[in-house]
TrEMBL record:
Bilayer disposition of the protein: Multi-pass membrane protein
Residue ranges crossing the lipid bilayer per the database entry: 71-92, 113-131
Protein purpose: Subunits I and II form the functional core of the enzyme complex. Electrons originating in cytochrome c are transferred via heme a and Cu(A) to the binuclear center formed by heme a3 and Cu(B).
Organism lineage string: Bacteria, Bacillati, Actinomycetota, Actinomycetes, Micrococcales
Annotated family: Belongs to the cytochrome c oxidase subunit 2 family.
SUPFAM superfamilies: Cupredoxins, Cytochrome c oxidase subunit II-like, transmembrane region
Protein name, as recorded: cytochrome-c oxidase
Enzyme class per UniProt: translocase
Keywords assigned: Copper, Electron transport, Membrane, Metal-binding, Respiratory chain, Translocase, Transmembrane, Transmembrane helix, Transport
Region (Disordered), start-end ranges: 291-310
Length: 310
């Protein structure tokens, strides 16, 4: 027989449902306004990454989805945590007539297991996607169609086209307010849809080879050799820059990247030959005494080129 519990209803102090909906509605409206202010569906879809990165290389879809997935996961967790926090603050705030100390829930084992296990699971998921993406991005298993040595120096770049045995060399961009600075920086020319392996060196201090449209950068470390491969998949002109603070004119350490058809690439290489830019710009140009190239990691031309002359 069910019996009534006299007095139970008299301690009911929760707010009317309509009031709670008003709080939730205001919160959602604020979030919506934040999300929608000044952004298009396009920008949102690519997570505010540069527009020119869409389809730029074989790896940009992987990087794009890792970026977007991480943000969606982080925002989901954020909204849940903020939502629960705000709900607790409002629903369980102290009211007149409440006891001095509310019921204490410490040493609640299931709760503690839950808030250990769930973050571990989330970190494991993020780790999995990061590790698999990174392994794909840094994979060197395939035979490249071209090898380009990217030699960073204060404050410009040399590009050695290893298979073609030609080079391009640059000087820093003089950013003096005059138009056309981008025409005076070195240009890296790559054939579209062909796999290129970059071999990164530094002549003096550490630098970083960054093509923002490729959504990827890698450091040029003094005395080390770093490598990565990529397949540019979209013709066009992109900007490149140094992404490691390397001294006074770091901001002028700029270059262009032109992804062109195979015919244009061959023309470009022929032009370098005609200009007499044959051979490779090796370690003989390194700043003496600063660099000791790591002998155990030879691979590119530069490591075996004139290193005894220093
Ligand atoms: Cu630099």
């Amino acid at each position: 027989m069910p019996t009534s519990t006299p007095g139970k209803a008299s301690v009911e102090t929760t707010r009317p449902a309509a009031s709670r909906f008003r709080y939730a509605g205001a919160g959602l409206a604020a979030l919506g306004a934040l999300a929608l202010s000044g952004c298009s569906a396009d920008q949102l879809a690519r997570g505010y990454l540069p527009a020119e990165s869409v389809g730029a290389t074989n790896m940009t879809p992987t990087i794009q989805s890792l970026w977007n997935g991480s943000w969606i996961a982080a925002l989901g967790v954020g909204v849940l945590v903020w939502g629960l926090t705000i709900w607790c603050v409002i629903a369980y705030r102290r009211r007149a007539g409440d006891p001095e100390v509310p019921p204490q829930l410490r040493y609640h084992l299931p709760l503690e297991v839950m808030y250990t296990a769930i973050p571990l699971f989330m970190v494991a998921v993020l780790f999995y996607y990061t590790a698999t993406s990174q392994a794909a991005i840094l994979d060197l298993e395939q035979e490249p169609d071209h090898t380009v040595e990217v030699v960073a120096k204060q404050w410009s770049w040399d590009f050695n086209y290893v298979d073609e045995d030609v080079y391009e060399t640059g000087v820093q961009a003089a950013l003096d307010g005059e138009e056309g600075a981008e025409d005076r920086v070195p240009t890296l020319v790559l054939p579209v849809d062909e796999r290129v392996e970059f071999v990164l060196f530094a002549r003096d201090v550490n630098h970083s080879f960054w093509i923002p449209a490729f959504l990827f950068k890698m450091d040029n470390i003094a005395g080390r050799e770093n490598r990565f491969q990529v397949v540019p998949t979209k013709e066009g002109t992109f900007q490149g820059k140094c992404a490691e603070l390397c001294g006074e004119y770091h901001s002028e350490m700029l270059f262009n990247v032109e992804v062109v058809s195979r015919e244009e690439y061959d023309d470009y290489i022929a032009g370098l030959e005609e200009a007499g830019q044959t051979g490779q710009l090796g370690t003989e140009l390194n700043r003496s005494g600063v660099i000791e190239t790591d002998e155990g990691r030879t691979g590119g031309n530069i490591t075996g080129n004139g290193r005894n002359e220093n």
